[in-house]
Amino acid sequence: MQRRTIVGVAGALAASTIFSSLATEPGSAYPTKPLKVIVPFPAGGTTDTLMRIIGPRLSKSLGQAVVIENKSGASATVGADFVAKAASDGYTLLVGAAHHTIAQAVFAKLPYRFERDLAPIGLIALVPNVVVVNASVPAKSVQDLIALSKAEPDKYNYGSAGPGSAHHLIGEMFKLRTGAKLMHIPYRGSAPAVADLLGGQVSVMFDTVTSALPHIKAQKTRALAVTTAKRSSALPDVPTLAEAGVAEFDVGTWFGLLAPAGTPQAIVDKLNAEVVAIVNDPEVRKQMLNQGIEPLTSSPAELKARIAKELTEFGALAKQAKLSVE
Question: The pTM is what?
């Protein structure tokens, strides 16, 4: 009896040691409290729309609340800086986007380094951008728009989500490739820029399909071309810029999740697996495609490689177009 008790105690101690070890393994018990996901743009834009689809499902799969917080400003860099300085415990995440690699190339000074201070978790989606004009602009094609802007260089402008945003870079890239004369008007996010496009204060936008789609369908704006190599599944009748006569144009807006650098790899891998499963769910894919969002997943390493590639490419383009934001 006494021996059995000793063996039982020893067994209990061994089990306790094992379970203690498992409990302290990074990511093993994660998450044990709500997560905060920072959307670095105002409510109503593409990033916000995307997370309203993904957020509730991530909450369900993780068994914890997922709080979506809009923290906008300076072309998404305010939100990125907030997450870069957060604790590396997996409880504060960023919806990163092409805007961030562009900003890194365009802003003269940033309080963080995107590739150094944020850890990629994985891609969620790719959204084509689309050249849209206010319904009163007489252009029926990209070539019409180019000709109109050259004929009256002080008349036409384009709005963006802010200096250093994807809208801005695509707009300047378009001008560089075509010689179009369009003045840049930056806003604090795409939603206010779209409002002025609808009101006629802005002539053109290189907006994401998700943001532009309802207004195109309502015939309040006119779609001239998409900026990616392939046509958008949501706008199958709209040509690509390459098809419209602007060669070698292939730029879209990717979206993905990132965590503060130093977040344990086990947590990064767990979040990646959850996101991949969510995005590959048929119902989620259908909901995304209906919003003009193309589902796209990746490993953390693949997103890291995309970021590195874009930093190089956009850096070269920013120099060529002489883009710099103080």
Answer: 0.82
Nearest CA among 170, 172, 202, 176 for reference residue 187 = 202
What is the rounded distance in angstroms from the CA atom of residue 91 to the CA atom of residue 33? 8
Of 319, 307, 313, give the one whose Cα is nearest residue 113. Answer: 307
133-166 pLDDT, tens digit per residue, is 999 999 999 999 999 999 998 899 999 988 888 8
| pLDDT greater than 90 at residue 281 | yes
pLDDT exceeds cutoff 90 at 195: yes
Distance in angstroms (rounded) separating the CA atoms of residues 83 and 63: 22
Q: Is 245 left (phi over 0), alpha (psi -120 to 50) or beta?
A: left
At residue 91, what are phi and psi to the nearest 5 degrees? Answer: -100, -5
The residues near 148 (Cβ < 8 Å, ≥ 6 apart) are 137, 138, 139, 155, 156
Distance, in Å, from the CA atom of 322 to the CA atom of 1, rounded to the nearest integer, reads: 85
pLDDT for 18? 36
Q: Which two tokens stand for residue 246?
A: 């602007």
Which residues neighbour 151 within 8 Å (Cβ) at sequence distance 6 or greater?
none
Residues 6+ apart with CB under 8 A from 37: 51, 55, 58, 66, 67, 68, 69, 93, 94, 95, 257
Q: Is the pLDDT assigned to residue 19 strictly greater than 60?
A: no
Burial class of residue 14, CB neighbours in 10 A (0-12, 13-18, 19+): exposed
DSSP 175-213: HHHH----EEEE-SSHHHHHHHHHHTS--EEEEEHHHHH
Amino acid at the residue 283: E
Using alpha carbons, list the distances in angstroms from residue 276 to 52, 94, 239, 295, 296.
16, 16, 30, 10, 9
Mean pLDDT across the chain, nearest whole number?
90
pLDDT (tens digit, 9 = 90+) per residue, 41-82? 888 888 888 999 999 999 999 999 999 999 998 889 999 999
Strand bridging mode 66-70 / 157-160: unpaired
